[in-house]
Amino acid sequence: MKKKKWKLIRQIWDLIRGSTFIKLGVSIIIIFGIMAVFSPIWVNRNPEIYDPIIGVDPDVHGSEGPSLKHPLGTDYIGKDLFSQLLRGSQIAFILGIMVSVLSTTIGTIVGLVAGYYGRIVDIILMRLADIILTLPRLPLLIVISGIFGTQSNWIILLILSFTFWPTISRVIRSQTLSLRERPFIESAKVSGVGNRRIILRHLAPNVLPITFYYLTVTVTGAILVEAGLSFLGFGDPSNMSWGMMLKWCFTTGYVFKAPYWMIPPGLCISALAFSFYLIGVGLEEIVNPRLKKR
Amino acid sequence: MEMVNVEHLTKLFPLRKRLFSREKHYVYAVDDVSFKIEKGKIMGLVGESGCGKTTTAKLLVRLLDPTSGNIYIKNENIADLRGKELKKFRKNIQMIFQDPYESLNPRFIVHDTVAEPLIAQGLYNTEKIYNALEVVGLKPPEEFLFRYSHELSGGQRQRVAIARALVIDPIFVVADEPTSMLDVSIRADVLNLLLALRKKFDLTVLFVTHDLAVARYMCDSIAVMYLGKIVERGNAEEIIKNPKHPYTKALLSAVPIPNPKAKRKRIKIGERVSDAVNPPERCRFYERCNYKKDICKRKYPKLIECCKDHFVACHLYG
Amino acid sequence: MDTILEIEELEMSYQTIKGFVSAVDNVSFKIMKGESMGLVGESGCGKTSLGMCIMKLLPENARIMNGKILFDGEDIVPKTEEEMRKIRWKGVSMIFQAAMNALNPVYRVGDQIIEAIQTHDNISKEEAREKVEKLYELVGLSPERMKNYPHEYSGGMRQRAIIAMALACDPKFIIADEPTTALDVIVQDQIIDEIVNLQKKLNMTMMYISHDISVIAETCNKIGVMYAGNIVEYTYTSTLFDNPLHPYTKALMSSFPSIEGPKKELKPVPGEPPNLLNPPEGCRFYPRCSYAEEICKKENPEFVEIEKDHFLACHKVI
Question: Which of B84, B102, B238, C196 is 20 to 30 A removed from B221 (C-alpha atoms)?
């Protein structure tokens, strides 16, 4: 059995090595990963000055440009922008990856169940997906965070996951529908293999490449939506994200005065979203043999 | 001893003809089919594509639920088994599929494929897997256990599929065109293997095929199907040498013979026009038949015994 | 008799990621005017590739490495696509394997054939239409059927339309590549009959490609047996069946069941066809050959005429 696992890992490694898109995407992500890990180290040197939420440099008044002490400068009350940017990459990572894991997991399970069982189960699950799919995401988030009063990253995470899964489940379902008719599934049924085992051992591995693809694409979506929400002022006020940095820059009137404040978070949002997108494209090339042939 | 006894087996598939039509249309895929297979014998189910032979095969292994009728295997009616009982009974019946490229999960290694029926029945046993692989001629088994199906040749794949079917010692095996996708030189090998295994394990087999020559080689008895009905059945040599039904005759006359000197007489019949959607009461073969009589238009002929162990459904006899 | 097609030491390879696959290797043979030659072999033996070489309808990754294809005395290998277009249809024409894919589903069948004629012959639409009507009658279709769409045709009718299309420009030479594979036994037989009759009636030269030696036995007066890119034996059908010399030919014949004569045990060919990415050294059949000797491992036997009109590539017999 060991031999098999190694083989799978090596296959995946070979595929990744062969794709320029994936290599590029992973490199960018690694840079952001280093930033996220570096965040506490930077802050802990002197939390009173460098903490992205409560730290203020008493020597600085108003926004100042980059200096040795503050590599990216400070905001309007003297908070360190570099530590905000680092914290932002943590948030983006955690939020993006958690939303995508949660929503692709739900989406894959729902898609498999709906596609495999068909009939009434399929109808109920897919109508539900359709309803969610047609709900406008941003207003929904605004309304729900209004209901809960305080905005917390957890609520944002749950709502994003809730609105992202239907797209995935639709794709997985259609894939399952065609897999279901394949003789190896019939062969498993004849052998008395139970439904749960058929889904887990036969169907799931065969839709996994698509799931992986959506995993990366959803990260992109989640990062962008979170940034948009924060910018509109519906982010988690007890934390700092890239979108929130942009928002403060905008509301305090520094947009045209402090490019050192506005450009880095904007660039980071685009770069991280782009890197996951690149991995998605690379994976799609692998998943879709027709694209691979070129 | 009768191992398999099928009585009045019927399968209708509903068809939605028009969007708002209230009329119910059905495809009579299998229509009132009855036959018996003795223990240790091979029965061939022969017919053109779309005649319902694969549907019959799937009904017998309960991949499809019959609309009506009984399927007795070892005197137990499995037509209405559900849930746990059905799952338990499944170890008695196995199926070998047509296309070995499709019937093996591409993400499974040989071990997983062969072990699956054992795991499903809670009988996992490594020795059985080794035995099954050896029995189908994949020797030594260690060399094949960890290969994926795409690392095997066509003949090897079908052997794995056979090993998988036999690993839990079924008493009845349904083989759905197991060699039609294989190359000529490998086909004979797999056919001989099936014959040897039948002898070794005293298996009862339903062998579905469109190839009469293969059916003659493999089977003790043959049933010919046409549009959901069995039109003729009996001893294999008898059917080949002395066919009664006009359809069987035409079918046999259309088989090419690997001998340039043999001049066979073609029986000319038309192409199939009617399908099995809501068929009228008349004989299904009516439009194409060269011997049609008035009665053929009014009544479907019953399957009657025209001579010993030779049944035919045609108004010309009886 | 005149030679219409002469192939000399033809070699064709497909370029793949893993290297060159030599699909046709050192093939030489002649076809006389009015003859019908059957090319028999297993899937992947290069028989379709050989047909495509003669049409010069090769996929992008295929290359003719060596050899000549003399059609009517002219070598077509160096000809450009422009020059080939004049030869195709009028000189060499082809009946394709998959009838469903060869017809465009959104145009009327008749119009498609008319268009094919007009692109090759400089005649008016009315003349073309009259010609198609005649062709339809020739292949046993009612000319009224011209205004139908492909999906309104049955499988057999579609194949007849394809034949009509292949005959549209009165070709001198026609290649039929498994024209009946997807069809049912009875329809298959009718189509084969039609092709044989047409070949005789129009005095065409034909090359019939099939995996089924019994179909070839009934349709062609000469047989070429192909194995792993080589033609291993080529002679008159009757000679081949009376006196097969190559071990592969013998094995092929005894691995086919028949509905005629006494029931014989099939003798399978051991092993599997070789991988053409790196074919075995020496004779390509030796790993499966029961007569193999030392020399067979080292040298590929030459294809020589061992008696009049009987060509063979085997060390053992020569």
Answer: B102
